[in-house]
Amino acid sequence: MRNAPGCLLVALIGCSLAPGQQPFEFWPGARYDASIPTYEKVLGYQPAERITSPEGLIRYLEALAAAAPKRIKIFDYGRTWEDRRLVFAVIGSEANMARLKQIQDGLAGLADPRKTPRQEAERLVASLPATVWLANGVHGNEISAPEASLLVAYHLLAARNDKLVERILSEVLVFIDPLQNPDGRARFLQHFTESLGLEPNANPDALEHVEPWPGGRMNHYLFDMNRDWFALTQPETRGRVRALLAWRPLVFVDLHEMGAEMSYYFAPEAEPYNPHLVSEQREALEWFGRNNARWFDQFGFRYFVREIFDAFYPGYGASWPAFHGAVSMTYEQASARGLLMQRRIDGEVFHFRETVRRQFVASISTLETAAQNRRRLLENFYRYRQTAIEEGNSEPVREYVLVRRGDTSAVDKLASLLAEQGVEVRRAAAPLTVNGREVPAGSYAIRLAQPAKRLIRTLLDPDVKMGEAFVKEQERLRSKKLPDEIYDIVAWSLPLVYGVEMVASPQPLDGAFQAVAPGGAPAGVVSGTAKLAYLAPWGTLAAGRLLTAALRQGLKVWSADRAFRLNGRSYSRGTLIFWVHENGAGLEQTLKKLAAATGAAIEATDTGYVEDGVSLGSRRVIPLKAPELAIAWDRPVSAYSA
Q1: Helix (H) / strand (E) containing 352
Q2: What does the alpha-carbon distance between residue 133 and residue 99 come to, in Å, rounded to a whole number?
Q3: What's the rounded Cα separation, in Å, for the pair 408 and 465?
Q4: Are 174 and 49 in contact (CB under 8 A)?
Q5: Spatial CB neighbours of 543, under 8 Å, sequence gap ≥ 6
Q6: What is the mean pLDDT of residues 10-38?
Q7: Calpha distance 608→348 (Å, rounded)
Q8: I need a surface site. Which of 7, 80, 293, 409 has the fewest CB within 10 A?
Q9: What is residue 83's DSSP assignment?
């Protein structure tokens, strides 16, 4: 059995135990500046003595910022569905923090080699620090990394006469996102607090370890945000993506937990690797893995590499940044799911603080590796972006075109989604000729000769190939009725997901184009002022959004269950009808707001006399009512499906 759970930590690193036992230390031998506030001073308890709330995590970082304002700054990047703050802290030497904007601009320069020639890039490489982003707790019930993030911040700010810390602060700008999923952590902590007895219970079947459905893994609306990085469905993810594009970190680490029977996992990842990762990135994974191993060996920590967690799907926190040129990695710690846990496999009991310590050590080790390789990281980042452009100019496909026909709102949504994650997208002002065929005006052209080329190929290609040897091995396993080695999602092509026609052009396209801004999908419009009714053709994502919004606004909506022709235009089955007299004054203004918000096209009519098909006054035109939905809730329903 490990250290007794009832001990109190001394300052950051000590833990008072029974007589004769050694104090528990997070970083042996460290000495700290008394002017930097400790956990106990701010939160009222020692590190890992309790599980800190989302609000407590921010409160402690703010206390550090108040004590050392020249070395740490806190930035908000969004709010959760439950209106909790999302923040990241930036920590560096006083000299680097004083030129924060200059560093940000320099990284932006390296990110676009078209604007930054080699000589200027060399100057930037010589002057800029490396940047490391430590992202903690995207799954709310994976509790050790957020706690460790506070220790990392404290250690960097308070450690005295520590040459490793001094080098890190000199060579690295450290970004700490203490908690990516505050709502999920709050849900976990609510159950744990209610279930905890006078002392923590190590039995894995104890109530404090058995979360009620749906658990704290996911966010408020039960989305797994570690699959959301390119889908961008959640406000937490959208805020993070904006922050990363603004700061361009060279190293990104997503710190997780896994089952209690495991040990600790860090890079290099398992096969398969996405083919759009480059050799320099895979080489860098070895740097970080070997240094982590050195520290873990020194402290006697168990770990494993190259198993389970692959680098193929681009929607993880440990993968999406890589397609912008970062070295991105997953770290996984065996979870105590509380303060004390007994492993079933061997009966060993371990404390929450031990899991926190391993995350802390891995984080410091990662920062050390970045400091040792500052120049190479900067050079590799610039080269990654530069070779992406070169490949885009030399490969058979020079442009992808999203054809704006059919469900145009889906095309607009996809174009906007790509722009939100740093892809340069252009909207054609006039029809285009691509491969001898005409493509309508409003279609979107995406030139491959740009720094985000590898992200474009990863997201838009119909089929991203796995390595031949890996596929062959999976076929062999399958033939023997053995489990495959694929961890998760293997197909995601966004044009197929959105039902959008995409055309590949072997030549760069000429013509008049307008750049698409993030969130820049065209707003819907209301054409004309109606005396009788407004019509919204069915069959698009925008029409579905309009119907939902209109019913929520209390509008009366009708739908034709047959096609018709009116005012020389054909309307499909399902067309929405808003009668002026049924909805009263202000309908036009309400619909204009809804059209702008949803992207729907709405047309006015002064007559109901159709030229063909079902009449607007037919019994086949029916009123729609807001549905009262029942959601299957609680076990045995999967929380992912609720």
Answers
A1: helix 352-372
A2: 18
A3: 29
A4: no
A5: 409, 536, 537, 574, 576, 600
A6: 69
A7: 77
A8: 293
A9: -
